[in-house]
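Follow-up to my post from last week.
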Amino acid sequence: MMKQKLDIKNLLTQPVPWLAHNVSNAGILISSRIRLARNISGFLFPLRAKATERQTIFDQIQSTLGSIPELNKSSMIDLKSLPEIEKQILFERHLISHEQINSRIGSGLVVGERESFSIMVNEEDHLRIQILSPGLELNRNWSKINRLDDLISSTLNYAYDNTIGFLTSCPTNIGTGLRASVMLHLPGLVLTEQIKPVTRGLNKMGLAVRGLFGEGSEAFGDLFQISNQSTLGESEKQIIARISRVVDRLLEHEKNARYILLETKPDYLFDYVSRAYGVLSHARLLSSEEAMKKLSALRVGIDLKMFTSLTLETLNRLMVDIQPGHLQKLYVKKMNPERRDSYRATLVKEYLC
Amino acid sequence: MMKQKLDIKNLLTQPVPWLAHNVSNAGILISSRIRLARNISGFLFPLRAKATERQTIFDQIQSTLGSIPELNKSSMIDLKSLPEIEKQILFERHLISHEQINSRIGSGLVVGERESFSIMVNEEDHLRIQILSPGLELNRNWSKINRLDDLISSTLNYAYDNTIGFLTSCPTNIGTGLRASVMLHLPGLVLTEQIKPVTRGLNKMGLAVRGLFGEGSEAFGDLFQISNQSTLGESEKQIIARISRVVDRLLEHEKNARYILLETKPDYLFDYVSRAYGVLSHARLLSSEEAMKKLSALRVGIDLKMFTSLTLETLNRLMVDIQPGHLQKLYVKKMNPERRDSYRATLVKEYLC
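User reply:
Got it. Predicted complex:
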């Protein structure tokens, strides 16, 4: 019945479910995401639909999904009525896209229990179903999202063409409507200046390389998101298998780069980590971008076992909590950017010391 | 008789005499220097003289100065016979110019007891007499150097013209042959972006603004050397009075800039100091340039009483000991630049912790 109200305050007390310290190669393989673009037959795509039609779509999705017993612990939110700061938090938790912060009538979000899945309503497509989890878990995510998709399609009439497949607002999503992506932490490739040729190689293979926040976001903090660019001509499983293979190779490549750095330039590597710690533990002002970059170095340091008390768990938590929205909500009063940089520095110091 | 041999190893254990923590405004007014350019009548200027003539000049200066009883605790060195590393140390202690590191036949140095004065022999002029002391001490330095100059001129026949004054190799030194300079630490003017207009203003007043190592050296670590550009048309006392007045105004200007920063952007100022401390106390590799820049911030922090145990005395010592020559000599084995950066980082950490 989806009667749950999404408790944003409560979200803040929880770590994001897609960052974990206890998965395989947690220092490099950050998270895996699968999303499906789906549309309901008989309605204009959200970007072309007028306000009333968007509202109708929203209502129909709400009532239909509400009738699925398996989703009765999920929440559906009308984003239009949400304060911007709360949308910023949803964005930082990767539950909505940057575009959906500027929501219009009918913009919505469905969130599964403990953020196990999310569905953006009336973003570029009527539904953008997403499952995000830590580590390399594309196959498991695919099973889960496939089941969820089946549940939804049993109640909603998807726009589907027998030859082409799922119809989507943007031609780049047509067919499977599937985007599979893996977030990797690749400081080794960055420091050994291999990241540019590697990116070019991936692009030639039809894979996109993006930053922490996906499309349109620049890579910083050495976090790179690898995803398929085409959704047509391959089955879902083929797409996933292809990306998984590439990720396996990137993992080896990154490990090798770190090994070479450690063998040939240990001072340089330890200096890189250690001075990042020095700045994070002493700065009085920290922008989120600088903090992310320095935390990236600490992630390497944890991998190198340079710290006795700093854990990957703490680091993961910090990576989310220093984002502007989380930071503002964790603090009581309204902050201007400078106050925020000061509070961020205080928070980081608390975590580290 | 100048029988003393200059003990470079012993120099290294001594702080340089021109950096002190117990002079007035020690955080801003670093040191004062006066030097006189003098030449001996009847010889070509050093840059034009052949090797044998340069050697004759050297010998004559050595025997003449050796006959002055007041100089019998001084040492005279033939720079040509000195290892490069030791010349680098003399340079870092401001006893010789950068040019004199590449010494030729006849290049020499006279050093007074406890580095109280120095005379470069056969640099650009036959004699470059210098007195350097901490704080703003131009008048006292002038009295001292004037007395020393009188002693020397009583035994050496200076090239002198009754109308023009002292004759020098470069026309910019002709007349008094006097260069008075004050080294100031001006991070407040740098951080408030006033240093460029201030420099332009000083240039218009006929004053040169240079870096830590004088002519040809860039300003870094927020250290600026202010000196007179012309040596003609003003008496020595007039030159000194003019520079002293300017320095007094710069001192007020710098204090004011720091006060404004502290009032309007305290977080920014504390961040600037604190993160410099974070890097210096954590880095594993430090170039001398980066170290100087960060030490500059610590000097501000000491002024702001931000540190409980770090003193200006320690900081002054560190500023000299991190220079390449001192660093190499303090260490036992020969170091390549990377090893030096690593050892510098270790040394800085030892001083700070």
